[in-house]
Amino acid sequence: MEITWLGHACTRVRTRTAAVLLDPYQRDGGLDMGRPTADIVTISHDDPRHNYVAGVRSQALVITGPGEYEVQGVQILGVRTALRAAAEGVPGERATAYVLEAEGLQVAHLGASGRQPTAEEAELLSNTDILILALGEDGLTPEEAARTVRALEPGITIPVGYAAEPGAWDAMLLAFRTAVGIEPEAAVTRLTVQARAASEKQRIVLLEARG
């Protein structure tokens, strides 16, 4: 399995049988995901930073909500979540997190959740091999992200996201590293993982945005 980050929360997971593109986005803030190909596209939230299916070059099956799916050897579970509430007492807009299972590995992508998972959501998202979570405007604060990692206990965590201000992304990563208490590995352009390489030691892997 190979994982690359295309900017914002957009991530591509390649298996031997299919390519899954999660949260494609419209060109924004100097970031451009290009024209990626995919067999499956998942949408966590109806927003141009998370739902730009028109930017995908190939015909793909598009999944937009909770449920169980199986496509080209990839099992997908959509878990209903919600965005951070705009004001106290106001429900957040609906969103969806996804768990992919293929090649003996489980990958959870929190998408545009913008808040920590509830206990019910955590039960469905916990103990995955790889957790992809967004920091920043469309995601979690570094402290919330650290608490989420402790609650879900993934083998590997990949922080993604975007910050418009120069240096703000590096500052968020530093704050996340401090809060989670795990030293991230050196950034790579892609992560390749095999089921037999799974380890009990928790890892933080940084990806270089290809968008």
Task: Please describe the topology of this protein.
Elements lengths: L1 E6 L2 E5 L4 E4 L17 E3 L18 E3 L3 E5 L2 E9 L11 E9 L2 E5 L9 H7 L4 E7 L5 H11 L3 E7 L5 H13 L10 E2 L10 E2 L7
Parallel strand pairs: 3-4, 4-5, 9-10, 10-11, 11-13
Antiparallel strand pairs: 1-2, 1-12, 2-3, 6-7, 7-8, 8-9
Helix pairs in contact: 2-3
Q: What's the level 1 CATH class?
A: Alpha Beta
How can the largest sheet be summarized?
A: 7 strands, mixed
Mean pLDDT across the residues is 91
| CATH architecture identity | 4-Layer Sandwich
Task: Write down the Rg.
Answer: 16 Å
Task: State the order of secondary-structure elements, H for helix, E for strand.
Answer: EEEEEEEEEHEHEHEE
Task: For the largest sheet, list the strands in their spatial order.
Answer: 6-7-8-9-10-11-13
Which word captures the global form? Answer: globular
Low-pLDDT runs of 5+ residues are: none
**Helix count from the secondary structure assignment:** 3
Fourth-level CATH superfamily? Ribonuclease Z/Hydroxyacylglutathione hydrolase-like
By DSSP, the count of extended strands is 13
Cα separation of the termini: 20 Å
